[in-house]
Amino acid sequence: MSRRVLHNQSGVTLIELIVAMIVISIAVGGVLLVMNYTTLHSADPVLRHQAIAIAEAYMEEITLKNYRDPDDGSLCPAAEASRSLYDNVCDYNGLNDSGARNQTGTAIATLASYSVSVTVGSLNYGPAGSQVAGLQIDIIVTDPAGEDFTLTGYRADY
Question: What are the CA-CA distances from residue 53 to residues 49, 60, 91, 100 (Å)?
Fold first, then answer.
């Protein structure tokens, strides 16, 4: 008489295999989406840092100029003919540079994809009776990705 010995079979069924493949593919898809997002936005910090550096350079240039026009002593006369002639803070009001420029107005080739706009307005700060007159300087730098960075500074008559 033959005796049949039943052995426990081990392995996976077709259904278990398909479910495992689906779970793994969803996990891999999620990882790939995160990697794609990270790659697309990896240059953003560099662009932002460059925009900050440009805005700070413009702000330093502007705040080092005279508060009043040295030619006639007025606060905000008509702007000078060219940027190389700017001699007071108000001359920069309305400045719009397509591509960052140096103090003489010469374009900086490596920063041509940035744009800079400057607004200068009067400001009275402090409680009534002891207000300090000054100028508010707003510099907006737009990076190549279209993101704006605004730097605001103040200049008093000291």
Answer: 6, 11, 22, 11
The b/e string for 98-109 (b: 16+ C-beta within 10 A; e otherwise) is eebbeeeeeeee
Structure token digits, residue 59: 């702000």
> Whole-angstrom Cα distance, residue 59 to residue 137?
8
**pLDDT tens-digit profile, the chain (158 residues):** 556 665 666 778 899 999 999 999 999 999 999 988 887 777 688 899 999 999 999 999 999 999 888 888 777 777 778 888 888 999 999 999 999 998 888 899 999 999 999 999 988 776 776 677 889 999 999 999 899 999 999 998 87
The pTM score is 0.70
